[in-house]
Amino acid sequence: MNSLQYTSQDGAGNGDRIASGAGNISDGDSLGVELERYWHEANVLKYWLAGLIAVGFLFGILITLLATPMYQATARLEVSQVTADVTNLDSLDSDSRISELQYLNTQFELLVSKFMAKRVMESGNLLRDGAFRDAFGIEDGANIEAKIERTLFDNVSIDPITQSSLVDVRFSSPNPLVSAEIANLWVQEFVAANYEKRFGANIEAREFLQDQIAELRERLADSEQELVEYANSNEILVLNSGGETGSESAGQTLVGADLQALNTALAAAVADRISAQAAIVGGNFPSADPRNQLLARLSEVESELAVLRSNFGPEYPQVQEKQAEVDSLRAAISGGANSLLRSARIREAELRDQVEIVKQRFLGQQGQGIRYGILKREVDTNREIYDALLQRFKELEASGAGQNNIQIIDQADVPAEPYAPSLIQNVLASLLASLVLAAGLVYLKVALSQTLKDPEDVRRRLHLALLGAIPRNTEGAMVERITERSSHINEAYTTVRTNMNFLTPQGAPEVLMFTSSVPSEGKSISSLGVATSFAQLGKRVLLIDADLRNSKLRDTLDLHDYDKGGLVPLLANQQTDMASQIIHLEDFGFDFLPMGRTPPNPVELLAGDRFSQIIEAARGQYDQVLIDGAPMLALADAIEMSKAVDGVIFVIQTERIKLRGIENALGRLQRSGAKVYGAIVTKVSQNNSAYGYGYGYGYGYGYGYGEERDAEPA
């Protein structure tokens, strides 16, 4: 209302500003008004909100008292980046090079995975652990494994220590001993799982190779045993295989060696025989033969004999001695050659017989040698495979000997006292929840309350000029407050009158109709108050009671006895003299045209030309003609009357009709061509004063707000 008073002092032409500025609200002002509205609603609901917060506080205490004490045990791990293999041997799994942060985050996620929960359950045999199941109240059932896994997963947590490779693993349970045992078991299984992940392939490979080596060892022993038994049963004695395989190994048996030796000896005997024959024929002996000395001596003696014969005669004794020596040497040489030839022939014959015998034996072993070679190849193949697997096993054993990069730093101790429930945390959480609910309640109150509470909504939502806000009367009859110039009701309607004077450059429109969405919003009282204010200004004013269905002015002005004349007879052409139907209200200072009897057909009476003729007649006799029209509802009365007037003043009661309903009523008026100049907000209470429309300040009147009394009949 203060803003309207300020506008009214700007002089002529400000009426356009009132109308055009109906919806010009800045974003900052809108936000401020919205916050003010929420604060106002919170103030209205303060007892409910205080009770809600108190309930939240008590609920936090109750939860703390009823909650089961929980004990938390903590174990600490060190998770280091994977280091190089000191054995310099490739393992079956090569570790990918990733960033330390990515590696740590991966390990942290694995720590609280369902995989670990299942591993801990199996390792700790929690299906049969009575202490664990009693602590969490897990009973036998079809899904007991899933329940245990879910319990483990829900009660374990990790807390990585910033700027380090350390992480704390915590487990909570109602049993302190169970908490410590599960926390320790959890970190132990995680360390073991990591070791298996890093070296698991090597371990599995070594186990596989151990099985293969054991199997191959047995197979090799069987093949060697079969080879030995076959050789023994067939009298095959291998002297030296020389690394050879197959049937060639059969040639290295004892029979083969004997045949080879006999062939060598036979070749030597043949050579000796040939040499002996050559010696007999040509006298040539081998250089190493002892007969060569006899031949040399024979040549020497013959030379000496020839010298002696040339010097002496045949009968000379020395010649005869030399001749005898020559004969003796010749006889010795000739006899030795023949003997040697015979000996060579005999040795050759014997060797040929032996070779033939051994040859037959060797030929008999040829078929056995093939089988022996097959067995020998099998033995050699098994031995090669066995040596290769044994070598690979030793390499894997060496490559899998690295240290685990995850280690347990601190074992979990049995907690001495519970860590939960925490009274402070529960109370704070409950209070926070209560505040959220309280805020939600206020929000819902504002969101669901679609009625007009803030008079400024006339500008923001309805895009109309706010002509005035009429406070709720709490000080007696409304009619008395209207006629009393010093009352706040009279002052409020004076403000409405002032703002109406600025609706057009010529002042207030001559003929105005008052209407509302539904009955009892203050439409009739507002028309009475505005008419009184104009009359107090010295103008000739006519107030017409045109609510033909349910007249409120008749009750307000106590005119029940006056029901013969009035507007209805004029509309029905029963009375043609309008002046005879008008009553002058001395207490209010204006003339009044009552309705008369309630007609059976209000719309038909208002739809004719007669109502426009009455209005035109009144326009020529009065400075201001005000009409108390019918409410909009779903009726056409107000629409028919709006065709004969200069404009419409819409009356809205606070906190009664939803804004959407008001918008629909205004839409019907505007679509019919009626000009709505503005709105009057009625029955503004102390609650609405929070929006800046209170009447206990600003004017110095000091009116209070006590118990609300419905002193406004219209």
TrEMBL record:
One Pfam family from the UniProt entry? AAA_31
Q: Where is the Tyrosine-protein kinase G-rich domain?
A: 375-446
Superkingdom of the source species? Bacteria
| Gene Ontology molecular-function annotations | ATP binding; non-membrane spanning protein tyrosine kinase activity
Coiled-coil residues are 206-233
Q: Supply the alphabetized keyword list.
A: ATP-binding, Coiled coil, Kinase, Membrane, Nucleotide-binding, Transferase, Transmembrane, Transmembrane helix, Tyrosine-protein kinase
CDD domains assigned: BY-kinase (cd05387)
- Where exactly are the transmembrane stretches of this chain? 47-71
A GO cellular component annotation in the UniProt record: plasma membrane
Q: What is its EC number?
A: 2.7.10.2
Which InterPro entries does the UniProt entry name for this protein? AAA_dom, Bact_polysacc_biosynth/exp, GNVR, P-loop_NTPase, Wzc-like_C
Q: Which residues lie within the region annotated Disordered?
A: 1-20
Record protein name field: non-specific protein-tyrosine kinase
Q: Which organism is it from?
A: Qipengyuania flava
